[in-house]
Amino acid sequence: LLVSSIIGKDRIIFATKEDHETPSSAELVADDPDDPYEEQGLILPNGDINWNCPCLGGMASGPCGEQFKSAFSCFHYSTEEIKGSDCVDQFRAMQECMQKYPDLYPQEDENDEKSSKDLEAASMEASAAKEEKGSS
């Protein structure tokens, strides 16, 4: 008898001694060498983002998944001198969405918050410098 329950993001499974003594009936399926998502990491061989990568921790599929994808795509494909300096609006939209779901996206403590605000300020300064440079 297996009992399963979900607590937060984790699934807890309780198994009896008998469950452990019974041989597994799981069948292993051979890896498909043509599966573009299998063990590819964050960036696929063709340069696309692997939204199924476990390294993203489910960010691409949560309630702010579209905002995350937009911001991350913008950054990944950015060709600006300061990479991602053209993505401030997308990252701001992602952050605003995440603030609506504090249980899913816990806010950083004050020290981390300060560094993220510093990063955002630096990014804005870079955008302003780029505009200024372009207008001369």
TrEMBL record:
InterPro entries xrefs: CHCH (IPR010625), CHCHD4 (IPR039289)
This protein's record includes keyword Oxidoreductase = yes
Organismal lineage = Eukaryota, Metazoa, Chordata, Craniata, Vertebrata
Give positions of region: Disordered. 102-136
**Where in the cell does this protein reside?**
Mitochondrion intermembrane space
Domain CHCH: residue ranges:
64-100
Can you list the GO cellular component terms from the UniProt entry? Answer: mitochondrial intermembrane space
Q: Which gene encodes it?
A: Chchd4
Any GO BP annotation: mitochondrial respiratory chain complex assembly
> What protein does this entry describe?
MIA40 protein
UniProt xrefs under PROSITE patterns? CHCH (PS51808)
